[in-house]
Write a structure and sequence with these properties.
TIM Barrel; 401 residues; alpha/beta
Length: 401
């Protein structure tokens, strides 16, 4: 039924409502699913806190899961910084140090009883992932390391998120090895929970937005029974290295303006898995580029792209001395295809474009989650809102009680 609703999205006329928010941009879904949630599952607000943003993160009441990002998995199956005590690179060393930091202690202490603390385990790089997944000894070592960590950690870890990002398409053998790895991990965390007589650990995986349409690492139908949630990383459709400026997480516009959009990919996922296991990735950041023209979709000068936090955008808009950050007026725009805001300005005779998320664009995404009865949202990343409540107010306004 939800697929029919998605297919019916073709005409979207948006009417302003009081408070600056809009009526549902999906009028054709009203006859498919009421706005009140049809299931009794709680609305998940999963927030990733990367180790580099610990000092900037504020625990908000809407948050249901705080996920520390991250601990790397070595090709040998060690949990770097936990099991062997000898991190192999700078990121692992810093992450391990921040895991034991007073900053993280303070964030964990702020969590309410209804807010869970989870840990993200990561692995990047094609040869590392292939070595890890194809090695029986590495697989055994990982399960041993994970069991030891969950049994001995003094932090109240209530869940594990697995973020293994394999570039490009994967062989059938590698996809099956990943399925078996996740299934074994499910068994491990369930055994630890049972032995400790505590609630079941939440187990989730993070996947690319096009994982349901391409032969990537993740065989979605085969993975569903082993996980509680699938985090769809529905962002970075344009990124710092993109040759053309554009929205980070466009709702619409595929084929006409860019290759993909998140509504298109959600339709693909909903054909393969239950809606209530989907957590839609929502960006709390944008990207800024130096561009060849003052058009919002202009060509980009290579190497000029950078992350733009919500705080950066607000400083641009609210500065009392705009000459310090721009040579002239800052133009605010709205991309009707992406349902995303952008800024255009000139600094030192160079054109700049920033695409970002604001309360209006976030409200559309949460509305979509509500109407499709998804499990909730997953925010990348806490701290990029720089303490502002505006994005959180948009989340709170649209949460179904």
């Amino acid at each position: 039924m939800f697929l029919l609703g998605l297919a019916a999205i073709g005409s979207w006329i948006y009417l302003y409502l009081q408070g600056g928010f809009l009526l549902s941009p999906f009028p054709n879904l009203d006859s498919v699913a009421p706005l009140s949630r049809l299931n009794t599952s709680p609305f998940i607000v999963y927030g990733f806190v990367p180790y580099w943003n610990l000092s900037k993160t504020v625990i908000q009441p809407e948050l249901t899961h705080l996920a520390y990002f991250s601990f790397p998995i070595t090709p040998e199956g060690e949990l770097d910084g936990i099991s062997n005590g000898k991190p192999t690179d700078t990121d692992a060393s810093i992450s391990s140090s921040r895991w034991r930091s007073a900053q993280l202690d303070d964030l964990v202490r702020q969590l309410k009883p209804n807010q869970a603390f989870t840990l993200t385990l990561t692995q990047f790089g094609k040869p590392e992932i292939e070595t890890f997944l194809s090695s029986p000894s590495a697989q055994t070592q990982f399960q041993t390391s994970l069991q030891s960590f969950l049994t001995t950690t003094t932090r109240p870890v209530a869940g594990i998120n697995i973020d293994i990002e394999y570039p490009g398409e994967a062989t059938p053998a590698l996809r099956q090895e990943y399925v078996e790895f996740v299934q074994r991990t499910r068994t491990t965390v369930d055994q630890v929970a049972q032995a400790r007589r505590q609630p079941k650990y939440n187990l989730s995986i993070s996947v690319y937005a096009n994982a349901a349409s391409r032969q990537l690492l993740w065989d979605i139908p085969s993975l569903i029974s082993a996980v509680d949630h699938v985090v769809i990383m529905a962002y970075d459709f344009h990124r710092s290295s993109s040759p053309i400026a554009g929205p980070v997480a466009p709702m619409f516009g595929a084929t006409q303006n860019w290759d993909n959009d998140l509504v298109l990919h959600l339709k693909e996922f909903l054909a393969q898995m239950p809606a209530n296991k989907i957590l839609l990735g929502v960006p709390f950041y944008g990207y800024e580029w130096e561009t060849t023209t003052g058009d919002s979709r202009s060509l980009v000068f290579p190497g000029t792209g950078a992350t733009a936090s919500y705080g950066r955008v607000q400083r641009l808009l609210n500065s009392t001395n705009s000459a310090e950050i721009a040579d002239g007026p800052i133009t605010q725009g709205w991309d009707e295809d992406a349902l995303s805001p952008y800024l255009i300005f000139t600094k030192d005779n160079r054109q700049h474009v920033i695409y970002y998320e604001d309360a209006r664009s976030i409200s559309y995404k949460v509305e979509l989650v509500n109407e499709l009865q998804l499990g909730g949202i997953a925010i990348w990343a806490l701290g990029y809102e720089d303490g502002s409540r505006e994005l959180w107010d948009a989340v709170q306004k649209h949460l179904e009680k």
